[in-house]
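Input:
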Amino acid sequence: MNGLTHVLTQVLVALFQVAAVAVGGPLLLGLMRKVRSRLEGRAGAPIHQPLLDLRKLFAKQRMRPRDSSWVFGAGPVVLVATVVAVTAVSPLVSASPPLGQSSDFFAVVFVLLLGSVLLALSALDTGTAFGGMGSSRSMTIGALCEPALLVAILAMAIAARTSNLPALVRVGISHPAVIASPARILALASFLVVILAESGRLPVDNPSTHLELTMIHEAMVLEYSGADLGLIILGESMRLVFLLGLFVNLFVPWGVADRPGVLFVGLGLLALVAKVCAVGATIAVFEVFTAKLRLFRLPELLAGGFVLALLGALTAVVR
Amino acid sequence: MNGATYSSFLEIAAGLVILCAFVTLWRRSLRAIVRTLAVQGMALGVVAIVLGVHRRDVVLIVVGCLVVLAKGLAIPTLVRRVLANEPMSRETSPLVNVPSSLVGAGALTFLAYGATRPVVALVSTSAGRLIPLGVATLLIGFFSMVVRRKAVSQIVGLLLVDNGIALVAFLATAGVPLLVELGASLDVLLVVVVLRVLAVQLWSKFAVLDLDQLQELHD
Amino acid sequence: MLAFVLLLVPAATGCVAAATPWRRWIGWLCTASLGFVLVTGVVLAVLVVHRPALSAFGGVLRVDALSAFMVIVIGAIGLLAVCQSVRYLEREVSSGRSSARRATLYSVLVQGFITAMLLAVVAGNVGVMWVAVEATTIITTFLVGYRRTRGALEASWKYVIICSVGIALAFLGTVLVYLAALHAGGVTHVSLQWTSLMSVAHHLDPGVMRLALALLVLGYGTKVGLAPMHSWLPDAHSQAPAPVSALMSGVLLTVAFYVLLRFKAVADGALGVGFSRMLFVTAGLLSLAVAASLLLSQRDYKRMLAYHSVEHMGLIALGAAAGTPLAIAAVLLHVLGHGLAKAVLFLASGEILIVEGTTEIDQVKALLARRPALGGVFAFGLVTLLGLPPFSLFISELNMLRAEVHVGLGWVAAISLVLMAVIFGSVMSHGRHMLFGARPDGEVAHKSPLNVSVPLIGGLVACGAIGVLAWPLDTLLRAAAMVVVK
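Output:
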């Protein structure tokens, strides 16, 4: 009986984490848009507007291009599925996630990558020119980002002697000096660049552009409608929250629940919400003052991110 | 200050020095590069000051303050004055493009770690472990002088070389004897003054600040 | 004390020159100060030849046989160059190409240059040596760009950039040597003294010393003009005014090499002769190869002379690689001979530039027929530099080759002979083009003014005299060589 309750509690906590991220994703999007609007002098839509948009989309009819295959339908589903899977096992609210004792940072990255790759494939599947263009640009960025991300994780892993994600967070809580170490600072700086690139924010990609030729991510989802589009928006926003949540937990781990108990989990949730909102608002402010980089200049930015990670790994190795 | 704090401060300051070296390869705007150089000079001074506080060596602290003033303020101001004459303040089309030069700089850092192993083995303190960062800055400065075309970029490369060497000098020996250190800092200042005079002459008489145009003398 | 006075005189002359606008008597005053330097050098040489060394200021200044010899070199070549500067400056001011203020600047800079060079050779502290060599880089930049033409500015830009990098590398090398000495149990206060470095040489960490010597050869080698760091040399020497080229070629390059020799002595104590030998052989052969390959296609006679300097610096490096007392003594003799002959040639080429108005070899013809004295000086100068007897370069080159064969570097000697033959051919062909030919009709043979020809001929005679009668210098050379070879 104890074993069953134990498993049930674990599953409940994991579901709770997923639900929090699922609701928080669109809310974060709404918050970022609100901050941007305010800075631009507009009143802006209410913060829960994306949730309303999602409800509207799920009620609408799906359409698919005539010559597309099952890949087109699979794209959004796999995207959301991968994000849900990693959210369930990652140390967002608690430093010892119930189902995620053995979740490895590298594995998390590769699972997320699965979602991105399938989305790119489904954009190709539409057979339109814009879909292909969006896919190729998105994969180029991915090809430049992934090495940076992996080396950044390597830097953090070498310093903490493990790539187990909860362990990395716990190391930050127990030894604060590790956070100030050059290896971790450089790795997290690189991580931030990668987050901006992967989630399609400025200066890599303008999420609110309507000019198709400047689109990277939006071009991939031009053909989606109805529930598919809803799933994609949900998946992307969850991914952003997830990555930002990991970032803040690795960089500023205070508040993360390191002991079991409803109070601590609640506190952890509040801390996570506060930190993610803070980072999200900062990114929104940064976006107001940045222009989108030319596509040819993107490799420079991403190479810089890679070199930051490389330096971090180097510093970690020679310590 | 206790050992751990001292180590962290030293690491962060030395790390900032090499990070600035990478940033000068990354940015294209010459004004941003000069600002980065100013930050690097100040970080270098902080390294000297931290070392001085740790060893309770007043001379070293004074030298550190002088370095902050000279390399963090005076020299970048002089270089910025050279830039004031030039309308095109971007480094366009260097010989090696930015991503490749960044990766090349990473390779040079590895090379620096390999080449200075005997030195690090000899100086087995926590400061000694950071010596390769100084050598890496030197190599990056060298690299930058070779692949950049603008006159100001060559001055920047020279200053990177000097900053790297100064970092090594501070970390390895807690500063060479004061006379020589002052001579070295003064020399950098004078070299920049000289270069500024030359650049001003080049610009005012011949409207040249792109080194590609200086091609008269060759075999 | 005497060494301090030695430094004081050119410095004071510089101050006097700065105070008043340029007149002819200032030029003669500068010449007199150089004469004083030469005489003091001889006196110092006599004093230290049978004694280890003279020290002043607690070892900051230290004169041993090697330093005294270098003072003589600086004095002799400087005297020649500054003497001709008077005429050069007079012409510049009277023709309106420079103002009196710039002539003052020139005199002050030259005196400052001489002071810095003297400081480098009489310093006992390798840090002070470094500071002095760095000071000369800054001073000579303005001298190289004196004419303010586009070519001169380009040359001085290249010069200051390349030499500053070199000097910075040399500083790093010095720091590493200091580091090694600190960890060998040296006392902080005197660790940068050359004598204390020599005394702990056997305890210096070999890995660090290898890195340090490589950096020092790269760094000071840049100022010496060894390939592949030589690219500033042709530009700087061809664009600078002729007396400045004479000074740089004769004095600057060799003082940088002197510092390198001092470090080589320390490194040999720590590492044995093998490593430094390899470095010097590589640099020397590379310099010879570069000079040989580029001399044939030269179109400018000043650049030709500059590449010739590169060749001789390569030969000196090879001689130093051999490392025996005979080799070092030959190297030092070569330094003096080459300095004098190259100074004479550069000054003659400056005169040719004034009278012919061009530095292209093609445009200058029949010098021997049209201007016998000048042409003769140039011809004899070329002959001297190519190492023909009875001039001193023949003896020094012969001895260097003998020493190289003796220590097992026979293949090096063979390669250098081949390259020297190639250079011989190129220079002879250029010289033949400039010197021989019939005088065009209607042109009368010009006589060069005495104040031009006499010093130049005097320089050549001195070169020959040293070659034939080695005895005044023999003891000094031997003592100087023993300073750096154990």
